[in-house]
Design brief:
- This protein is about 15% helix and about 30% strand.
- The protein is of the alpha+beta class.
- Strands 1, 2, 3, 4, 5, 6, 7 and 8 form an eight-stranded antiparallel sheet that branches.
- Strand 3 and strand 4 form a beta hairpin.
- The structure holds a DNA duplex (13 and 13 nucleotides).
Length: about 200
DNA sequence: TGAAAGATTCGCT
DNA sequence: GCGAATCTTTCAG
């Protein structure tokens, strides 16, 4: 699989020593710019909060094997997995391991950066802080839809990742939110003190 | 074939 | 802070 360094630098990922590649990706994504070339225009934001769902994790959607819904999580790292939750909200995930290994990173919050007015229209709220703070909200703000499922992050694709600023400060690990299985793992990563982090 | 649960959000108190 | 909305997937019977 071709990896475009600016979008998705695997060597940088591997240089960070982490418990598994999923965790390395979850931390790597912090501070990167997530951009969607949507129907209405360009929208995007800085990733400030992620959660890791590594192989063998009971809370991961692929814990009980591959199904039609979770198939995208078994694609090589860098593919999009979209999931509808509670009938109302969409979740945006990125597959995190090699082909055939099910794992992913949930992107939980963005600091809005591109197309703020379009994001406001998509969300129906004005306050920047309410645009993309939460996994369902960020999907709505960026107009991410289920048909992105299985697509790869790519410079030519509709969804891409761009390199970040450098001034984000410390990363902290905390409890993942809203799950019941394996709830004690500190696999949620965020920038300490950032006001766009959920909860 | 049916039932339950779910990586949430919003509005109301 | 609490509870309802909402609907698809998955597993059990």
């Amino acid at each position: 699989m071709e990896i475009e360094p600016e979008l998705y630098d695997l060597r940088a990922l591997e240089a960070k020593e982490a418990p598994s590649e999923t965790h390395a990706l979850a931390r790597f994504l912090l501070g990167k710019l997530l951009v969607h070339r949507s129907e209405g225009g360009l929208v995007g934001g800085w990733i400030v909060e992620t959660e890791a769902y590594p192989p063998g994790d009971e809370a991961c959607h692929c814990f009980r094997g591959r199904t039609a819904r979770n198939a995208a999580l078994f694609l090589p790292h860098g593919h999009i997995y979209m999931y509808r939750c509670y009938g109302t909200s969409l979740m945006f995930n990125i597959s995190a391991e090699k082909e055939g290994v099910g794992a992913g990173v949930l992107v939980r919050a963005l600091e809005p950066a591109l197309g703020l007015d379009l994001m406001r229209a998509n969300r129906g709220v004005a306050d920047v802080r309410d645009l993309a703070r939460g996994p369902g909200r960020l999907c709505q703000a960026l107009a991410l839809s289920l048909n992105l499922n299985g697509q790869r992050l790519s410079r030519r694709g509709r969804v891409r990742l761009m390199s970040g600023r450098g001034d984000w400060g410390a990363i902290e690990a905390s409890l993942r939110i809203g799950i019941s299985k394996n709830a004690g793992a500190l696999w949620r990563y965020s920038f300490t003190g950032n006001r766009f982090v959920s909860r």
